[in-house]
Specification:
By secondary structure, this protein is α/β, with parallel strands linked by helices. The chain contains 11 helices and 10 strands. Helix 1 packs parallel to helix 3. It is globular, with a radius of gyration of 20 Å.
């Protein structure tokens, strides 16, 4: 299996320029088995021959590996804590620092549901608070295909299953079985393609600088090899404001706790940097032994 994985890494890099050797082997094997079953080929060797001949299949495989699944308000507990505790705390901090803008980075935004969920919360808070504030959400993904979908902001109506009727009426335009985001939710969001494993950048260029109040990096780390998880978390830590929050997926909580972050509330998947680590975060991360290319 390892020889075939190495060949597939090389093929995808040569055909599309994507670095797939960063992903956990077990995750890659699962995706490959799904593609083998989809094409009804007998084994990995036959699938590899198909991959060599088809750039379309190479592109599909790459999208599968980028794991673009997303949902509105995906983790109910996380968004509840965000709404009731984290965002109000940030507003208090803004006032004490004489700032008015909340800066947020959605680091693996996929087709945009997470980003628009955040925007909905912020717009609802703006409607119900006397404290004036603005916000900017920088939404990035490695996939240009997903970024285009996110910018369009159009989804099947089944994507709204977790939302109240009031929120649906307030923030969506319904057209048959499809729904679109209202323009009000897009005005403070900037989408761009960005690779979290960029060899020199810790945050997206469109943000000019990091210093984010919140970084969302949810349901992403789980799929990477351990050395790349550490690299991503190191980059995220450098992009956070001194009292910023990191929000991950529920299944990634233990990974993050092992890497100098402290979970604020049990099972919330909301973290702050360990204070000792924060003092050292500007030291250069040793990337000498990490190979990006296949």
């Amino acid at each position: 299996m390892k020889n075939f994985l190495d060949q597939i890494h090389t093929t995808l890099y040569e055909k599309l320029g994507f670095k797939t050797n960063v992903f956990d082997d077990a995750f890659i094997e699962k995706v490959l088995l799904d593609r083998i079953q989809f094409h009804s080929v007998l084994n990995l060797e036959e699938y590899f021959q198909l991959l060599l001949k088809s750039k379309d299949e190479a592109s599909i495989l790459n999208e599968k590996l980028l794991n673009s699944h997303s949902e509105f308000f995906r983790d109910t507990l996380t968004f509840s804590v965000l709404e009731s505790i984290v965002l109000p705390a940030i507003l208090i901090r803004l006032k004490s620092q004489n700032r008015k803008e909340i800066r947020i980075w959605s680091a693996a935004c996929a087709s945009g549901q997470e980003v628009y969920s955040i925007a909905i919360l912020l717009e609802e808070i703006k409607r119900n608070t006397t404290a004036p504030f603005t916000y900017r959400i920088f939404a990035t993904d490695q996939s240009n295909i997903q970024i285009k979908k996110a910018i369009e902001g159009k989804y099947h109506i089944s994507a709204l299953n977790k939302m109240s009727l009031k929120r649906v009426n307030d923030w969506f335009i319904i057209d048959g079985e499809m729904v679109s985001m209202k323009q009000e939710l897009k005005k403070n969001v900037e989408f761009s393609v960005f690779d979290l494993l960029h060899p020199s950048l810790s945050s997206p260029p469109v943000s000019i600088f990091g210093d984010f109040d919140i970084v969302f990096c949810a349901n992403l780390l789980f799929y990477y090899k351990d050395e790349f998880r550490k690299l991503i978390l190191s980059k995220v830590s450098k992009s956070l404001a001194s009292d910023g929050y990191l929000i991950t997926g529920e299944t990634e909580r233990e990974i993050v706790r092992r890497n100098n972050f402290i979970e604020l509330f049990p099972r919330s998947a909301i973290f702050k940097m360990n204070s000792t680590y924060f003092k050292m975060r500007n030291e250069n991360f040793d990337e000498g032994n990490i190979q990006y290319r296949a």
